Structure formats: structure tokens, C-alpha cells
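Record type: monomer structure entry
Structure origin: computed from sequence
Chain ID: A
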Amino acid sequence: MSTTFAHPDVETLDRAALEALQERKLRALGERLAHHSEWVEHFASFGMKPNDLRDRASLRHVPTLEKSVLRARYPFPFLTVPMDEVARFCATSGTTGLPVMFGYTQRDVKTLMAYQMSRLLCAAGVERGERVYQGYGYGLWVGGVVMDWGLLAYGCTNFGIGPGRADAVVQWLRDHQYTACTMSPLWLMTLVNAAKSQGIDPKRDWRLRLGLFGGQSVSAAFRTELEAEMPDGFMAQNIYGSTESGGPNHAISCRHSHDADQMHLINEDTILTEILNPETLEPVSPGETGEIVFTTLEREASPVVRWRTRDLVKLAEDPYGCGCGRRAFPLIGRIIGRTDDMLKVRGSMLFPSQIEDCIASLSSTVNEAWQIYVDREDKVLEELIVAVERRNDASQSADGIRDGLERSIRARLGIRVNVEVHPEGSLPRYEAKATRVLVRKLAGV
């Protein structure tokens, strides 16, 4: 497979040249932040000045930035341009408190985001002029609007429908002949099932050849199942980003890294990324798991310095060895989970994605519909319940599914759980990010 680069002058750099570029931009960022009182106060709180940002070594002396620091500066934290220069705001989900607002200047929208998203789309295999069903959500959420900006800049024909309206979308996928899509992988599986209920066969009647899936990390087994439902040759590319980075702009799998379930940190020249041990905050080695921490080097309105995402990934064994030729852009695995999603069950550490891997190995369950029930907000547990759905066409009984999944989880993860098996259609479906862990009072507690 040959590689097409959106920005060959940057994407073909070696790592040393890219790090030199990062450091020049890091110095420029420090000089810019030195003119803004909030950033001066922030750096002074740990005995530094923004101008102390000289290189990657000096960056390691800057404490990580936490959401609590942003919320303490509500409503527009660390805004570095006058309000009349802000073209658009997006916001975090606000699941653990008030949403945090992040601004975009005209340059952020028309230059930076266009640059970042064009590279990401190209790396994933999107072609200019394609018809794209854009299924990420809108409003203040960052996914849909930033993908719109990217598709416009890259030259695609964008059908910005967003999630929802499944009965219409499954027909439009057939009639409009979209060839690419962007959305939550869970939403596409919901569309597959909705299509079948209308007598539409996605494999035969749709023309999709490529999907960019983010907002929810799913297992490799689920991705493989999703690809099997699509027209032959369909490729599901993982995408990663956040409101703090500017959108779904941070990482993407390419045609060469797809089979290994890995993504490139594709915009390292504008988003300097560290993969750190979440306890020591020291860099991890290849093959080790760490937390994504990043600094936005060029964002005008709402930059962040050493933003702590809480997202855990494994740095690839050979981070710079991808066959696509992007030698300077490290490879990471799919998102394992968040540090604040981690469950501790009778002393054993567990992430919801590990439960999903076990569920996805069973052909009798509905892979997009499952829940974990716990009884404590702090997630330090003695009891764990996993709820799944039995497919209507499954040959295995509910008791068989329950016993098989309990054995699988015990064998793979070393913990005992109780499994509930529900009829197909009983558990929640999600158009975007799924809530997998729910707190409820368990029997006898």
C-alpha cells in the first residue's frame, strides 16, 4: 500500500527534526502566554514563568493541568484572546460538573483545524470529493462541528446529519450512496440493526468503504464484527481527540496500522504529546501503558499546557516503525480506559474495556448493549454485575450465556462476577459516548 501525505514536508520528517520543530513552537507558545495574566499567575504558582518553556526538558518541570484548575477560573478559563475575537465555543460534556468552555478564533477554525483535520482524514484513507455521512453530535459538543470544518477544508461532500433519525439514515445510506462515515461505532451498529429491520442489507445495499469511529473506545472484536456487516473491503479506522485538544484531531489509525489496532499521534507538530506513568508522571517505555498528556502548540483562543486527559493507552512496541512512512509520529494502541473509570474488585484492577473484550468473544450476545452495575461511587467493590443481551436468533440459552461469560471473565481477568442476561432490546443504546458503569443498590447491600 502506497502512502498519500496531506503535508509531506512535515509527515516525512524524522523524529529528531520533528522534536526540533516542537521546541521552536514551544518557545513561541511560552512567549505568547507571557502576555496573559492568567497564564502568568498559573506558572507563578509553581515558581516558573511562561518564558521558561524553552524545550521538552523544561516542559517536564511544568505541573500537569487538571480540570479543577480550569473550573476554578470559570467561565472562560485561560482565554488568550479578547472575547470579540472568539468565533466559536465548544464545551466539555460536563458529566462531573459544569462544562468547561474552550474558544476558537478565526485562525483556529480556518487554518489550524483545517490543517489538522485534513491530515487526519488523509491518513485514514478519506478521498477528496467523497460523500460522507457525518454522524457526530452537534451543539456545544466538539465532535460534529470540528468534523464539518475538516471535511469542508479537505474537499468532501458532507451530509452533516449527526446521530439520530435512524429510520431515515439507513435509507439515505442506500439512496445517497455515501462512501465514508464518521460517528460512534455503537451508532453504526444500531443503524445496521435498524436497516435489517427494514429489509435493507448494509453489505449489499450500502456503498460505505471507510468509517472513522471515535467518542467511544471499543474492542478489536467489536470492530471486526462491525466491518463484517459492511460492504466487502470496508475499513473501520479508530480516531481519538478531545475538546481540550480542539476536537477529533489527535490520533488516527492508517491503512498500515489498522490491523495492529494502533493509531498515529498524527498532529505531533501542533499537539505535543507525552505518554506518562499516571502515578509517577515519568515517560513510559515502548510497550508500556501510560496516560496521554498533551500541550497545544498553536491553538490561539484556548491553549492548554500539559493537559492531563486521564486516558490510558499502550505505547507501541515499535512506535516509529509503521509501514506508512510516518517515522516521527508515534503509534499508540486504542484507548484502554480512563484512570477514573478503573474499578477495583476485591483488590484486582479492572477496566470496562476488558469486560467488553469478553462479551465480544460470545456470538450469542448483542455486543453494543451491555452494562456494569456497581454499588459504590468510589468503585472499590466486592460485588460486580455485568448485564448483557441475548440475541433473538441465538442458539445458546440465557443460562448458557450467563455461565459462559462468567467463566470467560474469571479465566481472563481473575475475578468472579455475576452476569444478568436480558432479552435483545432491553438495555440502553447510545448515539455517542456510552455510559457503561452505573451505580445502583445491589441486592443484600
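Annotation 1: The domain at 342-439 is CATH 3.30.300.30 (GMP Synthetase; Chain A, domain 3).
Annotation 2: The chain has two domains: 1-339, 342-439.
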